[in-house]
Specification:
The protein has 236 residues and is mainly alpha-helical. The chain folds into two domains: 192 residues, no CATH class; 30 residues, no CATH class. It is built from ten helices and three strands, in the order αβαββαααααααα. It has a three-stranded mixed beta sheet. α4 packs across α5, α5 crosses α7 and α8 crosses α9. The longest helix is centred in the middle third of the chain and has 22 residues.
Length: 236
């Protein structure tokens, strides 16, 4: 896809703005990193981890490759805006953010305690039971965090195109209920209801006499910044 100067400028401006608001922010590329390639091998449940998905670790946003960004700056802009929400949320409560995002699957690490336990003791059995957390158990905290991120995707589509396409709704639903995020919230009807409510909250930007919490742009400073970039309108 050919990028317009408009799209390229938006991506560059957003990257500059995030660097200003998030000290230590960086953009890197998975195909240039050994540990990302190793992580890609571990993510057996998401075969497109290295080629289609962008992830944030700490203050670094990892795109699949430089080519991925350069060939479609508008898509890269939307992805970076999504990650911007995560970056600001993480700054508010770093430890809680990291632990809650990995919960409940990270509990399986307790199985390592089996190596320190007496064989066939209750401690050993309890530690091994923690391996059950490797199963795709619904991850309520991860889902809540990603709902905030995907709210940005929904908002950008409405701000630029005036509405949200049905295939975009299905793509977001699959992200939550499918394997990309390890089936973090496998309840399609709940996700579709949340998407509809999020659309309503995006449109509420022009509403009067309404609770500020019912307007998506008030959820994070990231929404204020991205709204200004997409529409050219400063939100008061």
């Amino acid at each position: 896809m050919i990028n317009s100067v408009y799209d390229s400028d938006h991506y560059d401006e957003l990257a500059w703005l995030i660097a200003k608001r998030v000290p230590g922010f960086a953009i890197k590329y998975k195909d240039e990193s050994r540990w990302q390639r190793f992580l890609g091998c571990l993510c057996f449940f998401n075969k497109k981890y290295m080629t289609k998905y962008t992830n944030t670790f700490g203050k670094t946003v990892w795109f699949p490759s430089r080519k991925f960004v350069e060939r479609n700056k508008w898509a890269a802009f939307k992805i970076l805006a999504h990650e911007y929400v995560h970056l600001l949320d993480r700054m508010k409560a770093r430890l809680f953010f990291e632990i809650s995002y990995a919960f409940p699957q990270f509990v399986f690490m307790l199985s390592l305690l089996a190596l320190l336990s007496i064989w066939f003791s209750f401690g050993w059995l309890f530690s091994l039971l923690s391996l059950l957390f490797l199963l795709p158990i619904p991850a309520v905290f991860r889902a809540a965090i990603e709902m905030r991120g995907y709210s940005m995707n929904i908002a950008i589509n409405i701000w630029r195109h005036g509405s949200l396409r049905e295939d975009t709704r299905e793509w977001i639903t699959e992200a939550f209920t499918g394997w990309p995020y390890y089936k973090m919230w496998p309840f399609p009807s709940v996700i579709r209801g949340w998407i509809a409510d999020t659309e309503r909250r995006v449109y509420n930007i022009d509403a009067v006499k309404i609770d500020p919490e019912d307007v998506i742009i008030n959820d994070s400073e990231a929404f204020v910044d991205v709204y200004a970039l997409v529409t050219g309108i400063e939100f008061d």
